[in-house]
Amino acid sequence: MTETANAAGEKPRKRLFIKTYGCQMNVYDSGRMRDLLTPLGYEPAEAPEGADLVILNTCHIREKAAEKVYSELGRLKPLKEEKAASGGAMTIAVAGCVAQAEGAEIRARAPVVDLVVGPQAYHKLPEFIANVHRGRGDALQTEFEVEDKFDALAAPARQIDGYSAFVTVQEGCDKFCTFCVVPYTRGAEWSRPVDQVTAEARALVAQGVREVTLLGQNVNAYHGAPPAGREADGAWGLGTLVRHLARIEGLARIRFTTSHPRDMDDDLIAAFADTPALMPYFHLPVQSGSDRILKAMNRKHTAAEYLAIIARLRAARPDIAISGDMIVGFPGETEADFEATMELARAVNYAACFSFKYSRRPGTPGAAMAGQVDEAVKTERLARLNALLAAQQTAFNQSMTGRRLPVLFEREGRNPGQIGGRSPYLQAVHCEGPASLIGHIAQVEVTGASQNALSARLVPGETRAA
Fold first, then answer.
1. What is the SS3 assignment for 146-200?
2. Is it the case that residue 185 has pLDDT exceeding 80?
3. Which CATH number applies to 404-465?
4. Pairwise CA distance, residues 195 & 186, whole Å
């Protein structure tokens, strides 16, 4: 494809559409891909129609994830043909974990795809796309080059859409839970150096960001190289990193996700007590309340050990809210195993919890295990668990009624004169107020609650710059 300059001598702008599947890490990755491509003249498009470049940033966490990608590629094929018929060209790339897992099979099954790029190679997208346009280079790029990736990503300025942003600090997983594909698609655990994370956070704050969420497949396994001049410290853990970032002027809130029980340490728990910027909301997946199922999952913790961590967190920060993940219907799960999960949920009393039916991930040990649970049984158990979790979340939200909470307002509301934001507990909060409060933290008094949101009124004179 040949580009021609317009009358002003500028290169024509090109349209980029990215469809993101799955986790917050993919949301971060999609944003960084956009940042990499902006200097090449790509502008975001709201839909694939007419786009010059379409990227499907895929997730492999659920069963049949690849089939959903092929279905989407089927819808893109006529759009690509239509673009070609009008004298243009649409480049289609499949990125993310399905790209890593399926590799060359994607291009074999879907010739409409021009480029397959894994999650640890997307920093080379400009080079890969240029090679596609020149008819050179390998259309399959799935190397594991995490360190090279983040070195390369340090240069492009991030485009920020709001007052909260993700910052990846850790990637990969060494845990090898038997239901999970992450170790195979994201590689071994690796942590970004402290100076690199700090520089990205400072740059975000300079653009108006007031809250950062630190991301990692096992974020509390973070063990990054210390700042320059402090090499004698050895690797920093997540608690030390959080305290370091909390000293950035203008950074009002810090969160992190997702953690593993095996990587909880005293220093991180203490950070909830001694670091006001660290929000009192902690996501700690458990997956099952049955020790027998936890062992089959290779979680390497027991239900009692998980509950002990929760107790330590609540002792350190009494107002902390706990969220989690649970899987129903793992191979071999009996009614007694499921009831143990229900009992654990009752013991924790979650503020929020994500629950899923077990689905086979190709290539994982769980997919080949005996005792696969009938789909109808999984559906019925999930309904019972969801009813309990929904009641807990509603009760937690209702417990906020009458309380005063600091809210970071991020957007205008659906109704005229309404603004919306997030509480320290990640709850959506809606109230009447001026748009001038967007980007600031203000105290509100909660006047009502549902399962998914809080309504509130502003407390006069209780606004501060975030």
1. HHHHHHHHCCCCCCCCCCEEEEECEECCCCCCCCCCHHHHCCCCEECCHHHHHHH
2. no
3. 2.40.50.140
4. 23
Q: Radius of gyration of the chain from Cα atoms?
A: 23
pLDDT, tens digit, for every residue of 393-438?
999 999 999 999 999 999 998 889 999 999 999 999 999 999 999 9
Longest dimension (CA), the chain: 74
140: part of which helix (H) or strand (E)? Answer: strand 140-141
Global pTM reads: 0.82
Cβ-in-10-Å burial (0-12, 13-18, 19+) of 222 comes to: buried
Q: Which residue has the tokens 């009458």?
A: 402
At a CB cut-off of 8 Å and minimum separation 6, what does 75 contact?
none
CATH-assigned architecture of domain 148-398:
Alpha-Beta Horseshoe (3.80)
- DSSP secondary structure, 33-102, as one string: HHHHHGGGTEEE-SSSTT-SEEEEEE--SSTTHHHHHHHHHHHHHHHHHHHHHTT---EEEEEEHHHHHH
Question: Which CATH number does the domain 14-145 belong to among 3.40.50.12160, 3.60.15.10, 1.10.3720.10, 3.90.1860.10?
Answer: 3.40.50.12160
- pLDDT value at position 4? 41
Domain with CATH 3.40.50.12160 in the chain: 14-145
| 92-101, 131-140, 341-350: range with highest mean pLDDT | 341-350
Each residue's pLDDT tens digit, 313-368: 999 999 999 999 999 999 999 999 999 999 999 999 999 999 999 988 877 899 99
Q: How many CB atoms lie within 10 A of CB 377?
A: 15
Asked if the bond preceding 142 is cis, omega within 30° of 0, the reply is no
Residues of the chain within CATH 3.80.30.20 domain(s) are: 148-398
pLDDT for position 103: 80
Give me the amino acid identity at 337: D
Q: Where in the chain is the domain with CATH 2.40.50.140?
A: 404-465
Choice among 24-28, 244-248, 351-355 with the minimum mean pLDDT: 24-28
Sequence-distant (6+) residues with CB within 8 A of 302 are 291, 294
